[in-house]
Design a protein that fits this description.
By secondary structure, the protein is of the alpha/beta class. It contains 12 helices and 12 strands. The protein binds glyceraldehyde-3-phosphate, 1,3-dihydroxyacetonephosphate and zinc ion.
Length: 335
């Protein structure tokens, strides 16, 4: 048993309280590689932001859960080495789908877990979430639950259609499950193709797709039912057009990729939404930089030559999200 406190990590409780009260959101960045971890920590330290580093089941399969845990411990030490005396770093399980997986993470240094029972019948979702909460709280680990279904690829679960969270269910769900935060469905979805072209309109000037707006009315109803309760948005990458253009220019093929406009995420960050999940934008930033580098340097074969610009491009994106979209810069309790 390794408790996260021994690793210098923190759970989400205090940072969410401050984020909801302060009208900003904490970035939750997925990571699978060393370069992503380095870029996340450099960005968080330079902006003095709390940060959630999250690991999906797919990331554990790719990189090995033990290695990722030691990387998170390394991230705390790295932040200190970069000059941040009191970093606030959460190691979070993204889209846990069983009690056993959540328990394994809790027993091995995670400070926060998500139990995603959103594809289960309502009562089964409550029962599974409560089982995870009962165990997690014995170790002071915080638990995110999900109610409502996001469209798109959700780790290994694929949902064809989204079902917005029903505001009339959130009080009962959060009270009976005991969860610490709640991921809701208001129109975001996972991946780089968040909307089908037929769901969008086209900007007559640029020809680019304009997605339908998020359901802010649903969000506001939920906020009214659960005043001050931490709300989470998954599937919140913006799919920056310049990165998509770079990928396509240098041999990629991502036609009609479309994300959530940043002004809507900015607005959401000011509400009870206090955690915003971003993975695809990091993938796009990394891929764009690597494709460009290979096109311009066909003789390069040392991974450090192309992973360095990839890391720099991801760091730039993380800083932009923290400062210009979520507003979590300068929000460490102690510097
Ligand atoms: O919600 C899904 C995350 O983007 C993680 O994706 O399962 O491919 O690691 P992944
Ligand atoms: P994106 O695919 O929009 O980056 O969403 C990531 C996410 O929600 C991880 O849980
Ligand atoms: Zn997600």
């Amino acid at each position: 048993m390794t408790n996260y406190k021994e690793l210098g990590l923190v759970n989400t409780r205090e940072m969410f309280k401050r984020a909801v009260a302060g009208g900003y959101a904490i970035p939750a960045f997925n990571f699978n590689t060393l370069e992503q971890m380095q870029a996340i920590i450099q960005a968080a330290v330079e902006t003095k932001s709390p940060v959630i580093m999250q690991v999906s089941k797919g990331a554990r399969n790719y990189a090995n859960g033990t290695i990722l845990r030691y990387m998170a411990q390394g991230a705390v030490e790295y932040a200190k080495e970069l000059g941040c005396e009191h970093p606030e770093i959460v190691l979070h399980l993204d889209h846990g789908d069983t009690f056993e997986l959540c328990k394994d993470c809790i027993d091995n240094g995670f400070s926060s877990v998500m139990i995603d029972g959103s594809s289960l019948p309502y009562e089964d979702n409550i029962a599974l979430t409560k089982k995870v909460v009962d165990y997690a709280h014995q170790h002071d680990v915080t638990v995110e639950a999900e109610l409502g279904v996001l469209a798109g690829v959700e780790d290994e679960v694929v949902a064809e259609e989204s079902h917005y969270t029903k505001p009339e269910e959130v009080i009962d769900f959060s009270t009976r499950s005991g969860c610490d935060s709640l991921a809701i469905s208001i129109g975001t979805s996972h991946g780089a193709y968040k909307f089908k072209p037929e769901q969008c309109t086209r900007d007559p000037k640029t020809g680019k797709l304009v997605p339908p707006p998020l359901a802010f009315d649903v969000l506001h109803e939920i906020e009214k039912k659960l005043p001050g309760f931490p709300i989470v948005l998954h599937g919140s990458s913006s799919v920056p057009q310049d990165e998509v253009d770079t990928i396509n220019k240098f041999g990629g093929n991502l036609p009609d990729a479309v994300g959530i406009p940043e002004e809507q995420l900015r607005e959401a960050s000011k509400s009870a939404v206090c955690k915003i999940n971003i993975d695809s934008d990091s993938r796009l930033a990394m891929t764009a930089a690597i494709r460009k580098h290979f096109a311009e340097h066909p003789d390069h074969f040392d991974p450090r030559q192309y992973l360095k610009p990839a890391r720099e491009n991801m760091k730039k994106m993380y800083i932009h999200k923290i400062v210009d979209v979520l507003g979590s810069d300068g929000k460490l309790a102690q510097c």
